[in-house]
Design brief:
Strand content of chain B: 5-15%
CATH class of the largest domain in chain C: Alpha Beta
Strand order of the largest sheet of chain B: 2-8-7-6-5-3-4
Oligomer: heterotrimer
Largest sheet of chain C: 7 strands, mixed
Chains: A alpha+beta (125), B alpha/beta (447), C alpha/beta (495)
Structural class of chain B: alpha/beta
Distance between the termini of chain C: 16 Å
Strand content of chain C: 5-15%
Distance between the termini of chain B: 53 Å
Number of domains of chain B: 2
Number of helices of chain B: 14
Shape of chain C: globular
Number of strands of chain B: 15
CATH topology of the largest domain in chain B: Aspartate Aminotransferase, domain 2
Radius of gyration of chain C: 26 Å
Helix content of chain B: 25-40%
Number of helices of chain C: 15
Number of strands of chain C: 12
């Protein structure tokens, strides 16, 4: 499982980059969902989001999940290319698979990489 | 009559394996005071007796094949069904199978649905069809659900033409009563208005415009301008279409419609006193993820065989649960097969013959009826196989007089449009011979 | 290039070939509408009748069906569909009646519908029944609309929460979602019952009601059903019963007597209407006295009382506070109600009870035979179905592999991965129309497959191998989205 150390993580499997404001789903999440076939970003640029607000909806061959804002603030960018290439979420969840950027983002309850890894291990049994 | 294939000796052996003494002992979790109620139902019949009883009930009806000459349509149409259709439907391999969740042993159903989807998209001029809905009315309501989901509830206005089938409008109202939808245009008094009257109602809060083609009164309009106007405001347009008419007419797809739905009962499904019928639902590829209902897609199996599976299932209720666009689970599988066999057996030319006969006979009937003193066509727009006849008396009286003479008249429009008491909606199909039409005219002349 | 076993109906088309032809017109020629209103082309197949028959016959042979073998699909009640139903529903008096005919001309249909309403009321213990809903999920939506309308009419507007057990069918929360209510999930306890403590904590004056499947999707009759109903009612909520599992209750207990307010019937499960490869279903809804005024319109009623000489006149009536119309016309009359009516008429009260008793016996017999080989997480006397785990300690074989391997032995697999609360669930519902030999063969095969899972797991991973088609690439289907085909001559311009 890939868990970059510069990112923060939520219990609902989103990541948040405090340096850039970018957010997306974790490697663990993409692996659980398996082959992702549809992504819909539910927020627009300029919109204010609060922690826990649904920002995207993701569907795979077997499952469906809502993605929640890991931080509060103004949406400064949306990854528009994602809807044409939803498989990017499987191949590069922390890079090309970023979903939105939250400006001035105040993170909600988040874990560091080590904490998130322990949390995921605890769930796999 | 019983269909339980277990002998008393086998039953006793099975009870022993389970570890209980009697069948009744299996139900101890059921509260004792409510256990084993006496059901007050008629005693069991044998197959022979049931067949006789049902036969008697059915023969109490006056039907449109043996007793009545029919000019009644208004959403359900009497057409000829080629013999092949029912022979295929009676294959136990089709009708006793379940939803094709195990594709390896359900390719018959899956390929048949894939072909049905293809037949419907080619007919409507759209890109995608689902595996069907309960009927035309619920398909029209599901189109509103799609629009609501597409705008994520931010647009709540539905512009609904008063010339959409009144039952469909009722069903849309029932379906949307918890969604806070604001409906405009749906006013029975405005029945004479054309589609241009709807344009001023479309604004930035409009999620969808719903019209019918040909409309409930049989009128054929080109909706291109209306659709362009709706698209300028960002709204979707749903066209409720008659499939037989689509064989002849410009497709809603060519006009730019976003969703085309309708009742496919005219394609090989018996009148059956109203159901089960077949709601078709076609749309553009860009809305496929918001579309409700099952969907079959092409793929390959591990052996390299072209094959078909239910696809994009994560849209549906069994995975998406309360976030799904709709709770729909079953489709009208067997009736989708029915429509496919009907369309295939008649083929392109046979369907064109059906459409042409409907058109020609309706126009003959309209011409002859309007020659009778006091009767006339109410509209001047082109029509297909249904038209409104203005009568010198209330339509209810005209219908009663016709019924006394063995004719099922048209639909009494006064039931839904209070100022149309003297208006009769008349449908003519390939089943109506010239003699029947002439009889109708003669009887009305004598009235 | 994929190998094509049977071409599509479009690929079989050949321009100019004719199937069924129509008679020539017997009326003078009328001018067609203006050209701008006509379609330019009709890209549909052209075939001879024999082409069509062979094509669909070949397709039919790709299907597994109840007529061919055992179909123990949990929650779907795949019982045998009596052939007589196929004849009664095609009687000309039923086939050729228009839904808008004057009621005087269709008294046969209306009597059948009226009696069906009465019979379903008697079977379920409810005060009113609508036959209109087209399927189970449609009936559920109808029921939830009535529950919402009931509270709304009383001015009780703060009720927005629906309580749904974790073992529920997905249609339950989806129906609630269509009305914008919130779902509150109630967990199950260790015996597969509703967790009473958790339920108690969730019950307050914001509850619309509870949607409960009983027996639940684990096949368990809730041992505290009366307490569950009481808790929900004491907080002012209504009880919804998912009737998907009614086959276990015929003549055993009536949901209305247990205090349920509303329940949908699945005529295509309980009353032998064939499943048709996914439909049509038929989903009448029964309600208690306090909801009868909210039923969809119209219902069938007596509109003129009869006397010694005249039979009563049956027609349509609209309930006072009706939620409105759920579909066009009157429900799935021909394909649904006539078949179910025939079936109930042939069974009578004792026959219906036999159905439930033998459905439950068959499920318990299979459970007893498989208990030592497969782990059954909620192991007690079950109702018409039970759920076992399709996994073994130290093996990477999954429920899906076991299901696919069953096909090699010519059985339809059970329901997989449902209910969600059991790992690798295999949900088995044999129904009452299977004999002991079939059940024994099925149990023997499952025991053999468990052995194969240990000794030759690849047999399971690669299954099925004896069927005409192997496992499908579902990812390709979802990513490439080929959802329809065209005539070969139109392919290039359209793709």
């Amino acid at each position: 499982m890939n868990t970059p150390s510069n990112l923060k993580y939520t219990k609902s499997d989103e990541w948040f980059d405090p340096a850039t404001g970018a957010a997306g789903i974790t490697d663990y999440a993409q692996n659980q969902l398996s082959d992702i076939v549809f992504v819909e970003i539910l927020v627009e640029e300029g919109e204010e989001v609060s922690v826990g607000k649904a920002i995207a909806s993701v569907e795979s061959v077997k499952a469906s999940s809502e993605i929640y804002a890991p931080a509060a603030g103004k949406v400064s960018a949306v990854n528009k290319g994602l809807s044409d290439k939803p498989e990017t979420l499987n191949s590069d969840p922390y890079g090309e698979g970023w979903m939105i950027k939250i400006e001035g983002g105040a993170a909600g309850e988040v874990m560091d990489a080590a904490g998130y890894e322990t949390y995921c291990e605890g769930r796999s049994h | 009559m019983t269909y339980i294939p277990i002998s008393p000796a086998e039953r006793d052996a099975m009870l022993k394996t389970v570890g209980v003494k009697s069948l009744d002992d299996l139900f101890e979790a059921v509260p004792a005071k409510h256990r084993f109620p006496e059901l007050n139902l008629p005693p069991a019949l044998t197959e022979m007796e049931a067949a006789a009883q049902l036969g008697e009930m059915a023969s109490t009806n006056e039907n449109v094949r043996e007793h009545l000459i029919s000019f009644l349509g208004a959403g359900a149409y009497h057409h000829y069904v080629p013999s092949v259709v029912d022979h295929m439907l009676r294959r136990g391999e089709f009708y006793t199978a379940y939803t094709p969740y195990q594709p390896e042993i359900s390719q018959g159903t899956l390929q048949a649905i894939f072909e049905y989807q293809s037949l419907m998209t080619n007919l409507t001029g759209m890109e995608v069809s689902n595996a069907s809905h309960y009927d035309g009315a619920t398909a029209a309501a599901e189109a509103v659900n799609l629009a609501f989901a597409q705008f994520r509830g931010k647009r709540k206005k539905l512009v609904l033409s008063p010339a959409v089938n009144p039952q469909y409008r009722e069903v849309i109202r029932t379906y949307t009563q918890g969604m806070g939808v604001d409906t405009a245009g749906d006013d029975a008094e405005n029945h004479d208005d054309g589609p241009e009257a709807l344009i001023p109602l479309i604004d930035e809060s409009t999620m969808m415009v719903t019209v019918q083609y040909p409309d409930f009164f049989g009128r054929i309009y080109d909706y291109t301008d209306l659709i362009n106007a709706a698209h300028e405001k960002g709204a979707l347009v749903c066209v409720v279409a008659n499939p037989t008419a689509l064989v002849m007419l410009k497709t809603p797809g060519e006009m730019g419609a976003d969703i085309v739905v309708g009742e496919a009962q005219p394609f090989g499904i018996p009148l059956w006193y109203g159901g089960p019928y077949l709601g078709f639902f076609t749309t553009k590829k860009s809305y496929v993820h918001k579309m409700a209902g099952r969907l079959v897609g092409e793929t390959v199996d591990v052996r390299g065989n072209r094959s078909y599976v239910l696809t994009l299932t994560a849209r549906e209720q069994h995975i998406k649960r309360e976030r799904a666009t709709s709770n729909i689970c079953t489709n009208q599988g067997l009736l989708a097969l029915c429509a496919s066999v009907y369309m295939s057996t008649l083929g392109k030319q046979g369907l064109q013959e059906v459409a042409n006969l409907c058109y020609q006979k309706a126009h003959y009937a309209a011409a002859e009826l309007s020659k009778i003193d006091g009767f006339g066509l109410c509209h001047t727009e082109p029509y297909f196989h249904e038209f409104v006849l203005c009568c010198p008396k209330p339509a209810s009286e005209v219908n009663q007089y016709l019924l006394d003479n063995g004719i099922l008249g048209g639909y009494d429009l006064g039931k839904d449009y209070p100022d149309m008491q003297n208006h009769l909606l008349v449908a003519v199909t390939e089943m109506n011979s010239r003699d029947e039409i002439d009889t109708l005219v003669e009887i009305l002349k004598e009235m | 290039m994929a190998n094509i076993i049977e071409p599509t109906i479009f690929e079989l088309s050949s321009p100019g070939r004719r199937g069924v032809t129509m008679p020539a017109s017997d009326v003078p020629v009328a001018a067609l509408p203006p050209k701008e209103l006509l379609r330019s082309e009709l890209p549909l197949p052209e075939l001879a009748e024999v082409d069509v028959v062979r094509h669909y016959m070949i397709l039919s042979k790709f299907n597994y069906s109840v007529d061919e073998g055992f179909y123990p699909l949990g929650s779907c009640t795949m019982k045998y569909n009596p052939k007589i139903n196929e004849d009664t529903c095609r009687l000309p008096g039923f086939l050729f009646t228009h839904p808008l005919q004057p009621i005087e001309t269709v008294q046969g249909n209306l009597v059948l519908m009226y009696e069906m309403q009465e019979w379903l009321k008697e079977i379920s213990g409810f005060a009113g029944v609508t036959l209109q809903p087209a399927a189970g999920a449609h009936g559920e939506f109808t029921g939830v609309l009535m529950m919402a309308a009931y509270h709304k009419l009383r001015g009780d507007t703060k009720r927005t929460k629906m309580l749904i057990p974790d073992a529920a069918h997905g249609t339950n929360p989806a129906s609630v979602g269509m009305l914008g209510m919130q779902v509150v999930t109630i967990p199950s306890d260790s015996r597969g019952n509703v967790d009473l403590e958790k339920l108690k904590a969730a019950c307050d004056d914001t509850v619309v009601g509870m949607m409960l499947t009983n027996p639940n999707t684990l096949g368990m009759f809730d041992e505290h059903i009366e307490e569950v109903v009481k808790l929900v009612k004491d907080c002012g909520g209504l009880m919804y019963g998912d009737g998907a599992n009614l086959n276990a209750l015929l003549g055993i207990v009536r949901p209305g007597d247990l205090g349920f307010d509303v329940m949908h019937f699945n005529l295509h499960k309980t009353f032998s209407v064939p499943h048709g490869g996914g439909g049509p279903g038929s989903g009448p809804v029964g309600v208690s006295q306090r909801l009868v005024d909210f039923l969809p319109s119209p219902l069938v009623g007596i509109v003129e009382e009869g006397d010694d000489e005249m039979a009563p006149l049956y027609g349509f009536v609209t309930p006072k506070n009706s939620i409105g119309r759920m579909k066009a016309f009157h429900g799935h009359f021909g394909g649904g109600l006539v078949r179910a009516y025939t079936y109930i008429a042939m069974h009578g009260p004792d026959g219906l009870k036999d159905i439930a008793q033998y459905a439950v016996l068959n499920a318990n017999y299979l459970q007893a035979r498989l208990r030592d080989t497969y782990h059954i997480p909620f192991d007690r006397i079950c109702m018409h179905e039970f759920v076992m785990e399709g996994q073994f300690e130290g093996s990477d074989v999954r429920a899906l592999d076991i299901s696919k391997r069953l096909m090699d032995y010519n059985f339809h697999p059970p329901t997989n991965y449902f209910p969600l609360i059991v790992h690798e669930a295999l949900m088995i519902e044999p129904t009452e129309t299977e004999n002991k030999d079939t059940l024994d063969r099925f149990a023997d095969v499952l025991i053999k497959i468990a052995e194969e899972a240990k000794t030759q797991p690849d047999l399971l991973h690669n299954a099925p191998i004896t069927t005409q088609f192997g496992r499908m690439d579902e990812v390709k289907a979802a990513r490439e989205l080929v959802l329809c085909c065209w005539l070969p001559e139109n392919y290039e311009q359209l793709v």
